[in-house]
Amino acid sequence: MRISNLTEFEKISLPKLENEMDLYLNSLNSNQILKESMRYSVDAGGKRIRPLLVLISAYSLGKKISKSDYQVAGSLELLHTYSLIHDDLPEMDNDELRRGKPTNHKKFGQAIAVLAGDGLLTTSFEWLSLTDIDNDKKIKLISQLALAAGPQGMVSGQTDDILGESKKYNLEELKHLHAGKTGALLRYACVAGGILSDASDNQLELLRKYGENFGLAFQIYDDLLDVIGDAKSLGKNVHKDEIENKNTYPILLGVQGTKEALVEVLNNTENLLKEMANNDIAIDLFEQLLDYFKVRK
Amino acid sequence: MRISNLTEFEKISLPKLENEMDLYLNSLNSNQILKESMRYSVDAGGKRIRPLLVLISAYSLGKKISKSDYQVAGSLELLHTYSLIHDDLPEMDNDELRRGKPTNHKKFGQAIAVLAGDGLLTTSFEWLSLTDIDNDKKIKLISQLALAAGPQGMVSGQTDDILGESKKYNLEELKHLHAGKTGALLRYACVAGGILSDASDNQLELLRKYGENFGLAFQIYDDLLDVIGDAKSLGKNVHKDEIENKNTYPILLGVQGTKEALVEVLNNTENLLKEMANNDIAIDLFEQLLDYFKVRK
């Protein structure tokens, strides 16, 4: 029977996801400290939103979720974790706290943190390439992941972000930055689920749009939390954006304007959900995912 | 007509390799400074030994080298370049000079250097996954490359190297370090050429062994040059190993013992070449490659 409740879906799928990540990371024949460092950041937890989007996208097109789906989802979480480790480095955002724990370089030193990031990035492609799905699908996933994660996606956005500390972006430039920095992996997550479930081109495009909207909402919400949230419940320092002279929505639009921008994105997404439903995509779980941007406020 | 002279082979193939790398890097839709930084290190040149090994391996099994072979070879050089950028970082080997030019982080700053490395690593998989060869071969190449480059290969060796600065390895441990740090990509290079030319399992194994021997000779030679070479002709600082308390062959075996170890590896490789010749692999170019370890001394 179909699971239509997000909490229940998470309760069933997230332990299986964790288990697959555990198994693969443990199986690596590698330097012990490097493995520990990689595992440290993966085990730090987090919301697992990207792999969850992979699984929900596949499931919502009618796929029965299998071991290889968890592996594809897990490989994305490894890649995301690499990006966090490198983003936190002293030469980048210089963060000391992540998910309530010392960041990787605070725990293992800067050299090992660079290597753990490099290792997780490479392992993501390694795992994906060894997963038991057919090669044509694998190549689609690998090329889409690389395009999303690399200099045509996330790494470009991260560069925009770092270089932006010394200048002010306008709204268009800020959106472009985030479309790369956070948007690209979230779009990939939805598209990957679609590829796994043999989505039509039209369905893939709708999933991509959902990922895009979700990414936009995610970033606006994240910027808001940095202004109005508190460190304890977030597990990381707040008011960092302002201190670091980052380009953010609240700085461009003010807190009220940023809240309005978030509502607008969520309204657009509600319309998109209708279109998804008209194209044989179950929207119940996608809809509940949007509560993320309401409940925690 | 078959090219049997290495210099001639390089003269014909290297410009085509450079051209393919140029084309792909220029085509990237990315932050301009990130692109510049990636190109800076790729354009710094170097001997292009890894892509050359890919091409020679494919060619020596009778393959007519085509555009996609240059792309597979080029994707490996991008990955190698990422590893140099990250290795040179202040938290790693802290090198200021590479191939006679300022290292990436000296030129672009540490944050951009981390991102340029991340970008090149990801681009390597991206390019490989988009190359026009059949998907089964691509998956073989991608998985082999990831295994060679990641925590089960190069990144593990690099971690051994960094952590070894505070302890002394024995010969076995030193060999293990280098089998990862430099050996893994050189083995992959030879195997990749074999995959491209539909080598038999037996031929693949011989190519892998050649890569292994080449890697061993390469590292011993590199360690020797650090002791007996000069900065000007090498384009990088010398005597760094000693200063940084690195584990090296000369420290373990002395200069004379290291020279003898190199001769031994080269003798073993001569025997391997005979076996390769008996298995329908043309060995002329492989043989001339070994001159690299003699001429420059």
Per CATH, the class of chain A reads Mainly Alpha
Number of helices, where a helix is a run of at least 4 consecutive DSSP H or I residues of chain A: 15
Structural class of chain A: mainly alpha
Summed over residues and divided by their number, the pLDDT of chain A gives a mean of 93
Taken as a percent bin, the fraction of beta residues of chain A is under 5%
| Rg of chain A (CA only) | 18 Å
Low-confidence stretches of chain A: none
Largest sheet of chain A: 2 strands, antiparallel
Which architecture of chain A would the CATH scheme give at its second level? Answer: Orthogonal Bundle
Q: How are the strands of the biggest sheet of chain A laid out side by side?
A: 1-2
> Largest interface, with Cβ-Cβ < 8 Å?
A-B, 47 and 48 residues
Oligomeric form: homodimer
